[in-house]
Specification:
By secondary structure, this protein is mainly alpha-helical. It contains four helices and no strands.
Length: 108
């Protein structure tokens, strides 16, 4: 009895299908909606948000310290706050100094 001859192209179709399937899965894993690129972008956004959160926490701590100083009657902090609001003590004089710009000098 003669053994059936194997067709040399018989397994090639399966291999091509498996390779295409693997490439499709790899592309989905990398570029898909929940792929590696999206994951990396979300991780970067998370780091930025953590840095912003740390910055805001430091700002809150500074403002809390200023509030406590104002509530305790710290004269230096009260003076700073009054000056920011443009308040003056009785008897003080305000001098407004205007610097000449290049355009005002040119019109002379």
């Amino acid at each position: 009895m003669k053994s059936p001859e194997r067709n040399p192209w018989q397994g090639v179709g399966r291999r091509i299908i498996l390779i295409l399937l693997f490439l499709a899965l790899a592309a989905t894993f990398i570029f898909g909606q929940r792929g590696l690129l999206q994951y990396d972008e979300l991780r970067q956004q998370c780091r930025q948000m953590e840095a912003r959160n740390d910055s805001l926490e430091r700002e809150i701590a500074g403002l809390t310290a200023r509030i406590r100083a104002l509530e305790s009657g710290d004269s230096l902090e009260l003076e700073r706050a009054a000056r920011r609001w443009g308040l003056v003590r009785p008897g003080e004089e305000i001098f407004l100094i205007k610097e000449e710009t290049d355009t005002t000098q040119a019109h002379r």
